[in-house]
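dude i think i finally got it to work??
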Amino acid sequence: MLQDSESVQRHLELLQSTNLNVNKEKVDLARVAFRIGFWDDDVNRPKPPSLAAIFLVNKMFYYYQADPETQGLRLVLKEPYRSHIALGGAS
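look at this
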């Protein structure tokens, strides 16, 4: 099983050896990156106007659609992360 694999065990040991306490330390968004990809049942990217991927890098969101011919990603929108939006509109 995956959780018993050697690479997962090494990863868990590394996590346990760090001093990061996520409950007390604030995470700097400049050090965080996320990628969310979307796929259909045939493992093809969805066709426009649906989004194929969303990236969060350096406090910026990047929204991509898939090219219908090549499945390559095309940037359609770029916008900054704003913490007041993430907190439900609090200013």
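The chain has a mean pLDDT of 79.
im so relieved honestly
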